[in-house]
Structures are given as C-alpha cells and as structure tokens.
Design a protein that fits this description.
It contains three helices and two strands. By secondary structure, the chain is mostly helical. The chain has two domains: about 1-40; about 70-110, no CATH class.
Length: about 110
C-alpha cells in the first residue's frame, strides 16, 4: 500500500469515527430531553377533606435528626468538632448526623 492510499484510509477512518461520535452526541441530547420531559415533577392533587397531607421540610427549616450525647465535653468543643468535620469532608452540617462525641484523655490512649 502506498503512502497516498494509507493517507486516504486514515482520513476515511477518522471521518467514520467523527460521524459516529456526532450521531452519539445527538442521540444523547435527544434521550436527555425525553427523560427530562418524562421526569418533570407532577402537580400534586389537592387533599380531600379528612385526609392528612405529609409536610415537606425545606432545607431552611430547623429540624433535628436525633439527639447528640456529649461525654466529658462541653457544647462549644462539640460544635467546633462538628464544624471541622463538616468543613473537611465537604458535607453540609445539616446532612451530618452525630450520635455522640466524647473526650479521649491521654491516660486512656496510653492504656490502649
């Protein structure tokens, strides 16, 4: 095969690859639009008399995910620990759930 034929084959192959990539791009766009249309939130039906509606809590509302047990530590230290964990992990504090925070003494570390 000569250099001229090799260049033609390479150009043809590159054209086929770009053509297929273009088709895939448009298929993905079409599927994205269809799925976006299908998954739009539906308007809720009004609640009939006598039925109870579930209240949706927005992120701005104050809510508690449970209780926090502090063992040998004060509230300021616990708040600082929770803020540091939230900052370092990149998870908002409202999404974290702490069960307990306890103070670890140096004596207990030496025994362990």
């Amino acid at each position: 095969m000569s250099i001229y034929e090799s260049i033609l084959v390479a150009l043809f192959c590159m054209a086929v690859v770009f053509f297929v990539l273009g088709i895939l791009y448009f298929l993905i766009r079409i599927f994205s639009l269809v799925l976006g249309y299908v998954s739009k939130p539906q308007v809720a039906a009004p609640v009939a008399a006598g039925e109870s509606a579930v209240e949706v809590v927005s992120p701005q509302d104050d809510f508690s995910a449970g209780t926090l047990v502090l063992k040998d530590t004060d509230e300021q230290t616990a708040a600082m620990i929770m803020a540091i964990i939230s900052h370092e992990s990149g998870i908002p504090l409202s999404e974290l759930c702490f069960k307990s925070i306890r103070l670890i003494n140096k004596e207990s570390e030496a025994k362990a």
